[in-house]
Amino acid sequence: MEFFEVIKSRHSVRAFQSRDVEDEKLRTILNTANAAPSAGNLQAYEIVVVRDPQRKAALARAAYGQEFVAQAPVDLVFCANSMQSASKYGRRGAELYSVQDATISAAYSQLASVALGLGSVWVGAFDPEAVASTIRAPRGITPVAIISIGYPAEEPRATRRREIRDLVREETFD
Question: Which of 26, 81, 119, 163 satisfies CB 3.0 to 4.6 Å to 152 for a cystine?
Fold first, then answer.
């Protein structure tokens, strides 16, 4: 799929077929996420792949009952590794750069999913402690986003976007 078509085609999918995501496609998604830029090329994030039905159900509960998380064949939990980023950038690395690294990687995974004919949804509403417990995250690894991925069982509709003139401002300095 052509890049700009991928961008236009990416919409949140919250209903998935029971069909598994092939290992080759998942590898491609993870390799694409790995290609995302990061602060100082530290890649201060971790990706946890969740396919086990019991763990997916626990993630759905941690996501305040968003059942599509359990329904999706695979959930990717993107976590910030604050200590890794702090080692080079101090507090700003711990509090911001590691989170940015994780979110950029998560966005790349969504675009790769679309390019492969899959659907995904970004889940940011969750109890971070419950998600961390579910994925057995070590200290310093903080869940930032869950990306649920699978073959769509719905045709998502495009949502209204802000006008560019309302979104962008160009500052001139005299």
Answer: 119
pTM value?
Answer: 0.93
Length of the chain counted residue by residue: 174
pLDDT digits over 39-75, tens only? Answer: 999 999 999 999 999 999 999 999 999 999 999 999 9
Other C-beta atoms closer than 10 Å to the C-beta of 20 total 13
* 152 within 8 A of 17, measured Cβ to Cβ: yes
Runs of H (alpha helix) within the chain: 3-9, 23-34, 53-62, 68-71, 82-92, 98-115, 128-134, 164-167
Q: Which CATH class is domain 22-152?
A: alpha beta
77: nearest Cα among 126, 31, 36, 118: 126
Instruction: State the pairing for strand pair 74-81/141-150.
Output: antiparallel
Q: Would you tell me how many other CB atoms lie within 10 Å of the CB of residue 133? A: 13
User: Distances in Å between the alpha carbon of 59 and those of 14, 75, 114, 146?
Assistant: 15, 9, 23, 9
Q: Where are the domains of the chain?
A: 22-152
